Amino acid sequence: MTIAQNAALSHERLAGDRLRPVRIWLYGLAAFVLLIVVVGGITRLTESGLSITSWKPISGTIPPLSEADWNAEFEAYKQIPQYTVVHSWMSLDDFKFIFFWEWFHRLLARALGLVFLVPFAIFLFQKRLSRDLAVPLFVLFLLGGFQGFLGWWMVSSGLTELTSVSQYRLAAHLTAASFLFIALLYVARSLEPGRVVGRVSGRQIAAAVILLVGVIIQIAAGAFVAGLDAGMGYQTWPLMDGAVIPKGMLVMEPAWRNFFENALTVQFIHRTIAYAIVAYVAYLIWRRWRDGGFGGVHGWLPLLGMLVLLQVGLGIATLLTSVPISLAVGHQALAFMLAGTVAAYIADLRRARI
User: Which regions span the lipid bilayer (predicted)?
Assistant: First the structure.
């Protein structure tokens, strides 16, 4: 076949691929969600999340435009415990800095709805979406809207008694964001044309799903670490508080509270899950190497191994350097990218088995 014939065939396949714009849109949405997560991480690390004390879905898109508006927002912030206990030193200019990050985070979250709905309506009009695809995609839109509710539910927990948001609500908010990100990438990857090369068993799919569940649990555990500022203590590795298994992990009553409210226990759990994920991925790679190598669909496994090691290294560096914003945000973003990569691997495993 000549180069011209090859090009003509590729053009014909591209022209016949009516779902290509849909895939690009879904990948773009996933990237947008990741951007919101990154900005959310900066918002949390700069203690900006409680700077806007009201939820105005429409009018809240416009920031204060006059000195009077700024003073009104600042006065509202002065009424909550975070200001009186933690930030009473703030000037109006200091407040404007933290206000920006929370406002920007909310603006991006609102924009996500438009970035979804407008192309979705266009694709429906163009009949690119079957009913079997349109319904699940609309469910993802509802999940995105639910994220907005969870965000305000989280913020509201820090407006009356606490000086920061509840770690339980932070974990719910971040975990829901991970579900949305994973689902977008999984659907997009599932819509790729052609067949994936490789022999796949149900056991291999189940093993990959177990890995994805583990990564999601680790993201939730990381949210508890962040919510309790647990990373600001016990900043040594590999020992923790001078021991492999530190004392004092079950000092709270009832005992279950330690797993969610004791900073020592929460950080220990986060570390332990990381070790378990490293061991599990190493096992999957060893098993695949023994069973025939990494050709075709199983080429994802070496990439997953590298991402896991990078994530662990980044987590250790974040801890040892007292949680700088750049490393902490990178650690959170990479956790999402790891989860998304596992989701893409699962999608390809299922495509290979069809």
Answer: 24-45, 107-125, 137-155, 167-187, 208-228, 268-286, 298-319, 325-347
